[in-house]
Amino acid sequence: APVQPLVRNRKQLESLLQQVPTFANPQSRWEQYATPGEVAASWLYDAKMRWNCFTAEQSVLDLGCGPGALMTGCLALGSGYVCGVDIDSDSLDLCRSNLMELFSPGNDDDDNDVSANWDLLQADVTRLSAGLVHQRQFDVVVTNPPFGTYSDAKLSHKSNSNRRNKKAGQSTSSKGIDIAFLEAGIAASCGLVFSLHKTTTMPFVMHRARQACARKLMSNDDVASAMVEGRDYSVSQVANLRYNLNRSYNHHLKESKDIEVSILEVAFLR
Amino acid sequence: IFKISNMKLILHNMLTSAMIKGVKKGYPLLLRATKVELQPVEFDAGFVVHMLPRLDWSGVTAAVQCLNQLDLLQDPLPELPPTVPDDYANNEDFLRKAHIALMQLDVIEGCLVCPETGREFPIAKGIPNMLINDNEAA
């Protein structure tokens, strides 16, 4: 029998995702911002309504999964398999315990047999494409990437995190990291890519998305043929939301701050 | 009903060490597991049929071979054909075996090994760590 979704409507999804425990000490070196439950719910539910994605036969990749709000949502909506990637051990530990907790027997009110298949991977998303054997292995990629605001100069002030960055093998500058995540997602997907970005950056992000799509192989075969927008893929801005950076992430903020974010949708049409 | 989840072979199937300088293909990674468990995941034919064309079947057979050699399970895993049969979409017997291999085998501890350099990637608490140092990067 196919997997039964754990949630039946938007409200149930929002309620579930708001329960996902988040970072106790968000690490500024990774620009960790957990996706708030209501943002994740709205995002994923709209996608499901528009594309009927996250079905039992589909595989989903979450790049920069953090504590796992998006993964939880994709699983709760019925996805057949979800793989979450993150660079940070603490995030992965938290994500693992969140997923085990949320999908344990005691939490299913209706006594349906809910099966949820997921994996976690510790990796640098900016090096992920090189480390995957084929492109186009996932039906859907979702990502809430780091915003990529830090230049080398800002990061070098934090000498400890610099050393840890070097150890973990990530380049110190985070500028452009949001584009790197998006490109990794476009390579890994054979269907859809959803990513969250600051609204002010969207024109540039969409331009880079189009470039990445145009370069993408039509299939996993060796012969590459150019993709054409409109015929082979679409790039759209599908939602604009307000996102609250709370006070606990405060190395440069004195108070809670709202930022405007948008969701980018890339769809491979053939 | 749900339980702990550890690295499945579907994930192993996708991973390479090709982000390391000098590695030509880095696939498939040798599976040097020290702790594995068979989980009773519900069979979903639709999922297997949908995913199979995107997987590298040689990686699946190589991983199962590694595990059978390590002799960590009570019973060896069902034997897999060397190639995917043409009628796979309707071949329930094959799909069930593929599902067991891909989705029901949890690798809890051990490591993945680059077939060209011997570089080890640890698996701890079911999570493989594919991070490399800057000086290893291609």
From TrEMBL, chain A:
Biased composition (Basic residues): 156-167
InterPro entries: DNA_methylase_N6_adenine_CS, Methyltransf_25, rRNA_MeTrfase/Polyamine_Synth, SAM-dependent_MTases_sf
Annotated PROSITE patterns: N6_MTASE
Region feature Disordered, mapped onto this chain: 152-171
Molecular-function GO terms, alphabetical: methyltransferase activity; nucleic acid binding
Domain of life according to the entry: Eukaryota
Source lineage: Eukaryota, Metazoa, Spiralia, Lophotrochozoa, Platyhelminthes
Pfam family, one: Methyltransf_25
Residue intervals of the Methyltransferase domain: 60-152
Name this polypeptide is given: Methyltransferase domain-containing protein
One BP annotation, GO: methylation
From TrEMBL, chain B:
BP-aspect Gene Ontology terms: rRNA (guanine-N7)-methylation; tRNA methylation
Pfam families: Trm112p
Residue ranges of coiled coil: none
Lineage: superkingdom: Eukaryota
GO molecular function: protein heterodimerization activity
Similarity field: Belongs to the TRM112 family.
Name of the protein this chain belongs to: Multifunctional methyltransferase subunit TRM112-like protein
Species classification: Eukaryota, Metazoa, Spiralia, Lophotrochozoa, Platyhelminthes
